[in-house]
Amino acid sequence: MKRSPEFQHSVRQYINGRWETGVTTGRSINPSDLRETVAEYARADRNQTDLAVRAAADALRAWSLTTPQRRADALDQIGSEILARRDELGLLLAREEGKTLPEAVAEAARAGQIFKFFAGEALRVGGESIASLRPGVHVDVSREPVGVVALIAPWNLPLAIPAWKIAPALACGNALVFKPSELVPACGWALADIISRAALPAGTFNLVMGSGREVGQALAEHPLVDAVSFTGSAANGQRVLLATAARRAKVQLEMGGKNPLVVLADADLELAVDCAVQGAYFSTGQRCTASSRLIVEAPVHDAFVARLKQRIASLKVGHALEPGVDIGPVADGRQLQKNLDAIAAAGEEGAEHVWGGEQLQRPSEGHYLSPALFLAKPAHRIAREEVFGPVACVLRADDADHALALANDTPFGLCAGICTNSLRHAMHFRRHARVGMTMVNLPTAGIDYHVPFGGRKASSYGPREQGRHAAGFYSILKTGYLRA
Ligand code: NAD
User: Which residues form the signal peptide (predicted)?
Assistant: First the structure.
């Protein structure tokens, strides 16, 4: 069903198979047009969160004993509905989070494909059979659900990230409580609405919305929550880590990045500029994998900067629903201020301003920011701290070894890219970049959903997300010995 852009959702929690009002209500606002409320949503408190966790705990046995076929059918049905409604869901996403409409529709399609992928994985949750050291004894290793899992998601990929947590959790037979970010409740609700039609046993899937400090923290601390999968900022990831470690719950954290894109002197410069533009500025730079550090070898430094400046000057910033817009608005006022503060700090620390970083006026009042580029030194904050906006800096490297050293000179370790025509340099970089994902002649942002996703150092903690390796988090190994 096609909705008019002005449609306002009234969004409730989904607990134990019923739609529930909250203790208070909140609103999500369209960052492209601040006059427009996208959703009024029910906000839970600790008590309502507790009800959702208890509902999941009660439902766990029924769902964990379902057949793989039953789980596969449910996930396939969810994936089919998301794919069939990708345009409508993309429109909602673009209005609530501010991605351009084509980016948002692609994300909705991605969410559907993820459910389809895990429909297949539900059939392949397997184990192994191994010869025992002892005669007459049989050993097998099987996977069982972890139990009740809490899934805490950020706002920047409001359909895809929940999909890549919810789908493997259900495929592996867990019951769950999902908490979306306060900025994107309608996207969370839209997924819950679709999942509610898959006839899961009541309580298997629950949606609670509200503040991270209250609802998120309550989930991380709840004694009946066996595992927490969190994606968000490093500071909140640390809080979740402490709360879960204190009670020995399983935990998976995906946090920030300060991803380098290295450009060597032998690179195809046009391709390198393309990778930088896509990686640093598309999706308004609001991607954990954004290429916010462009490390360029000295012989091509000036030519690269000149071409990049020319390209970003031609990018169109505007309303997420306007055709031809390359960069939508920043997601909210707090995030915009964070970007502006980082831009001001870059200037104060002596980074050389190349382009952008100004607030823009558009026909509708929104959080518009022109893409910003600086020439920085490795010690500058703009080269070290995650901004999470359309802001990038260029660092000059003496040679390939220096470029690799600069790439690794960060507390983060999510993704690292290199543009080069040398196989030797590419393979060396792949081996020695201290990250979870590497890219050669590709933007650092833009990943496949059927392979592991995650990083090292301050970017990630715990088992990988996505692909068949997701089962490593959402299941527990049991070893059985048997003498017939
Ligand atoms: P955030 O940390 O503010 O919020 C993330 C989620 O955690 C929200 O649902 C929030 O309500 C909840 N939360 C907040 N405080 C909490 C607490 N004390 N306990 C439990 N939950 C709490 O992050 P954000 O602003 O929504 O997202 C941006 C961040 O997410 C960036 O740092 C970005 O790099 C990161 N991110 C990482 C990945 C990845 O996979 N590595 C992907 C996307 C975004």
Answer: none
pLDDT single digits (tens) 351-364? 999 999 999 999 99
Instruction: For residue 455, give the ligand 1 atom closest to its CA.
Output: 41
Cβ contacts of 344 within 8 Å, gap of 6 or more: none
The pairing of strands 18-20 and 250-254 is unpaired
What's the angle, vertex CA 322, arms to CA 320 and CA 328, rounded to 5?
Answer: 25
206 lines ligand 1 (CB under 6 A): no
Single pTM value for the model:
0.97
CA of 182 to the centre of ligand 1 (A): 10
d(CA 154, ligand 1 centre) in Å: 4
List residues with catalytic annotation: 254
Q: DSSP class of residue 459? A: T
Report the alpha-carbon distance of residue 229 to residue 345 in Å, rounded.
33
Angle made by CA atoms 156, 157, 161, in degrees to the nearest 5: 130
pLDDT given at position 9: 80
Domains and CATH numbers, the chain: 9-256+458-483 (3.40.605.10), 260-443 (3.40.309.10)
- Span 230-236, average pLDDT: 97
Give the number of the atom of ligand 1 that is nearest the alpha carbon of residue 288: 34
Q: How many residues does the chain have?
A: 484
